[in-house]
Design brief:
Blueprint lengths: L2 E3 L10 E4 L4 E4 L18 E4 L3 E7 L9 H17 L5 E7 L7 H10 L4 E5 L2 H9 L8 E3 L9 E3 L4 H14 L4 E7 L4 H13 L3 E8 L4 H7 L1 H5 L3 E4 L5 H12 L5 E2 L18 E4 L2 H15 L5 H20 L6 H4 L5 E3 L2 E5 L5 E4 L1 E6 L2 E6 L6
Parallel strand pairs: 1-15, 5-6, 5-7, 7-8, 8-9, 10-11, 10-12, 12-13
Antiparallel strand pairs: 1-2, 2-3, 4-6, 14-18, 15-16, 16-17, 18-19
Amino acid sequence: MSVVRLLKVGALVAGVMALSSCETETIGAKMANDKALKPPPTAVEETFGRGSTEITLLLAKSQSGYYEGVSKDIRDGAALAIRELDEAGAMKIKVVDVAAGPSSVPAAISAANSRSSGLLLSFAPQATISAIAASAPDQRPPLVNLGPAVSGAKVFNFGFDEVSSAARGVRRVIAGGQKKIVVLAPANLGVSEEAGLKSAIGQAGGTVTGVIRYDAGAVSDLLARSKPMLDAANAAVVMGDGNAVGAVLRALRATSASLPVVGTSHWPTSVYGDPSAANVLIATADPDAMRTVGARYEAAYKRPFSIHAALGYDSIAMTAGIVRSAGSAVITSEALTSKTGFRGVTGLFRLTPNGAIERRLGIYKVEGGRLVSVEATAESF
């Protein structure tokens, strides 16, 4: 049995390796140097790479006509991966705008087919992704979806779920006897995500004592008013992916200093350096991998490496490993759903035939501004 590895950490090297009991094959062993990349222009259609195997990246531009936010991070993470991992020049990424919504999907798929695209990657509003997924599976390449989960034939959801990270971390504190959990979540957290976290806490034997919704302003006042709810809990889960996370942590420490805190994989890494983050537990991917690739990303694009950029990177790295191992003709559902999975910047994962993704996360504690392993990530499925 083999495991396709997307990332080799050490000596600042990233690559894709196929592992077996008797041999290791390194794919893309030589990596790019630290030379900074200029962010590519977004006002025109873009192509990264020079190979014949096209990976079509379907994103939605903002009203400004540019890729912004998560879309920009995914695009730039994918562009960095093609530069670093496609040493043989076998692949290219074609970035296609689907900001017009579901009506833009038929033309985008038709054009991808005319270029003999081997794989579709997507991040767009759910209605647009659903339209892609609903298209005839025999009339399009497989779809790897980095956006909101959808279902369909030859559709594989690739997102990194913050709720799964929170649930994995909170299971550890519940197992330690801290079963009354208060959740602090951004005001825009989806109802289904809140329900999913509550369900996971209940299944682990815990009880949610309350949910406190926060925004970037008036965090201290909000937590002061919510002190009875905090006092009723013996652990807190803090969700979020923006700068407000730091403000929430500081206010939480001021209000309930002794309350153990569980963070998530989506926290900005800059929060780790805040004294209020000390001893927080987080279930996430290998932080060494994130730091290694993240340093090159930040040098290239002059902004922090986000979980979304990591997903863009890993989606291309996974594909590059398949192409390098078996050729472009085998970017198939069977290749994508290798039972032994892949190891990338976002950790060990595998796609399943029903379109879901399974991830193996380690448990880490924030110490001295860094994540220190408490419970190692599983080495295999």
